[in-house]
Structure of DNA-binding GntR family transcriptional regulator:
Amino acid sequence: MRIAKALAERIISGAIEPGARLRQDHVAEEFGASHVPVREAFRRLEAQGLAVSEARRGVRVAAFDLDEVKEVAEMRAALEVLALKHAAPHLTAAILDKAEEATHAGDRSRDVRSWEEANRTFHRLILTPCGMPRLLAAIDDLHAASARFLFAAWRSEWETRTDHDHRAILSALRQGQVDTAASILARHVQWIGQRPVRMQSGATREAFTIVG
């Protein structure tokens, strides 16, 4: 898990770029490990959608396009709504207050990393009380993919924003309007932003990302 977590963080942050080869011997040497835990780490990265294994080409960092961004957004919407509906009966005023604090922290963020951390905290707080560990683990993997898209689009700069959807979700939950909260949540995580990003070559490309 240690190796998989470290590599995942590098891939998500963009430190290891899409298409880059992950060399088993180099990773084993860096972490002072045998090839067995490295292979296990690679399988974990594949399960998370962060790496792909190609015949005769080894393991590479997965590339991504608009179709993959849409797929992650739709999966998040379906799974997070399911988790929220099971979590709703267990959401206390204290939990909702903490979720509101996370939203305020996101509003104050001056960089993409702190915003992503605050955003993920908000979602975890309102979903964790569902008490369904497999579902939450799947959602965590999807959030990792979302973070990767986000960092690829906003690596060099960040525009501060106010998250009105989070506030609307909290308001609905406080009033016991679970279906309304679920509807807003589904729409929220399926919104895909687009912006031009300058590549190392100097050329620009359109980046798509989930900002929710």
